[in-house]
Amino acid sequence: MSFNKKVSPIKASESSPRKMDPMITVGIIGCGYWGPNLARNFMSAQNCRVKILCDVQPERLAYMQSLYCDMDIATDYKRLIEDPRIDALVIATPVRYHFEMALEALKAEKHIFIEKPMATSAREARILIDTAQERDLTLMVGHTFIYSSAVRKIKELVTSGELGEIQYIAARRLNLGLFQKDINVTWDLAPHDISIILYVLDKMPDSINCQGKAHVNPDIEDITSLVLNYPNGGIATIQNSWLDPNKVRDMTFVGSKKMLVYNDLEPMEKIKIYDKRVEIPPHYDTFAEFHYAYHYGDMHAPYIKQYEPLKVECQHFIDSITTGQIPVTSGEEGLKVIQILEAASESLRNGGGMVKL
Ligand SMILES: NC(=O)c1ccc[n+]([C@@H]2O[C@H](COP(=O)([O-])OP(=O)(O)OC[C@H]3O[C@@H](n4cnc5c(N)ncnc54)[C@H](O)[C@@H]3O)[C@@H](O)[C@H]2O)c1
């Protein structure tokens, strides 16, 4: 189970331990919708002890204590930052708090797991990366899908050339709500799609277009259409919506040899590979000689072992701290996503015009 970069394998095999005591003590800030999922998975992670949970809302802490009765709680996150027994902090608050909390915590020598999107600007993301590097601390971003077996299988298929050259990718992430108050639907949902595309293709687009509309809150787009333009002519489109009657989570990868559809809502057959393509005749002299050939072959759904991506992600954070290796979803990967989101916001402001990266 390993990724293909100079980064920490998901299960660290060799290690040059950064910390003599392998037990990492963790505090979690933000116990709203997502925080409890992180708490559950960090509690079951090896070499990890969750010591304290923090939320400004006492009722959220009361709920968490009803699940984990012996857990320390706090309403002020500074208590976690000042606690010398805590090695690492997990930040699962709304994005407007990410930068301030993460920076304070890094300056207090804590390793940081920060939810997506990692910050509100590329400038903030860069400061967090530099601060972590200067202090030799782990900074990891919660791009959860990178730890899913389906996405890892797609990466394997694309990298091996089974699909041929990727001509385009179309992603849809739609549902009714949850409306956010501080970010639009692109900043909320697209980090998942963008991080998957960057991981699978292993390259950045060179420009971005984004169009959208705000229907419910006049200042916050609730439907957006984002386009990532690649230098070789490749293109990826991402449609995001909080205003759709159906929950949709799918991505289509069209290659020159085969096509792949990834439906994350399918319980078992999440990936289907279609042996379909259009063949253009190599030589023709007249229009009458020109015929497209449509190739229709089999469809197959490869077996994918199912596990909870968040469980792997949480363990990977702990392992990255103890080995000192760079996590797969490092601060640098988080920054790339933010750069695309910033360009999307600029494009939205100018009516969908192209923004160079
Ligand atoms: N990786 C994923 O798949 C995934 C899924 C959902 C959400 N998220 C991310 O997780 C983060 C939280 O999202 P959510 O949906 O749980 O939001 P939420 O609003 O449901 O929960 C946020 C919690 O943070 C608490 N909070 C706010 N300010 C605080 C402060 N100063 N100190 C302590 N607690 C504070 C709130 O009271 C709330 O309980 C966001 O960055 C979001 O994008 C990631």
Please give the CATH architecture of the largest domain.
2-Layer Sandwich
Give the strand line-up of the largest sheet: 14-13-12-11-7-10-9-8-15
Instruction: Name the CATH homologous superfamily of the largest domain.
Output: Dihydrodipicolinate Reductase, domain 2
Oligomer: single chain
Low-confidence stretches: 1-6, 11-15
Number of domains: 2
Overall form: globular
What ligands does this structure carry? nicotinamide-adenine-dinucleotide
Number of strands: 15
Number of helices: 9
What structural class do you assign from the helix and strand content?
Answer: alpha/beta
Q: Look up the CATH topology of the largest domain.
A: Dihydrodipicolinate Reductase, domain 2
Largest sheet: 9 strands, mixed
Distance between the termini: 33 Å
Radius of gyration: 22 Å
Helix content: 25-40%
Reading off the top of the CATH hierarchy, the class of the largest domain is best stated as: Alpha Beta
Percentage of residues in strands? 25-35%
* Mean of all residue-level pLDDT scores: 93
**SSE topology string:** EHEHEHEHEHEHEHEEEEEEEHHE
Protein traits:
single chain; 357 residues; alpha/beta; Rossmann fold; Dihydrodipicolinate Reductase, domain 2; 2 domains; nine-stranded mixed sheet; six-stranded parallel sheet; 31% helix; disordered N terminus; binds nicotinamide-adenine-dinucleotide
Give an overview in words.
By secondary structure, the chain is α/β, with parallel strands linked by helices. It folds into 2 domains: 24-145 and 309-329, Rossmann fold (3-Layer(aba) Sandwich), CATH 3.40.50; 146-308 and 339-356, 2-Layer Sandwich (Dihydrodipicolinate Reductase, domain 2). It contains 9 helices and 15 strands. It has helices at residues 35-43, 58-67, 78-82, 98-107, 122-134, 149-160, 185-201, 309-323, 331-349; strands spanning 24-29, 48-54, 72-74, 88-91, 111-115, 139-142, 166-176, 207-213, 223-229, 235-241, 243-255, 259-263, 271-279, 293-300, 355-356. The chain has a 9-stranded mixed sheet with strand order 14-13-12-11-7-10-9-8-15. A hairpin with a 3-residue loop joins β11 and β12 (259-263). The longest helix is centred in the C-terminal third of the chain and has 19 residues, at 331-349. The radius of gyration is 22 Å and the shape is globular. The two termini are 33 Å apart. The model is unreliable at 1-6 and 11-15 (pLDDT under 50). The structure holds nicotinamide-adenine-dinucleotide. The site of nicotinamide-adenine-dinucleotide (NAD) has 22 residues, from loops.
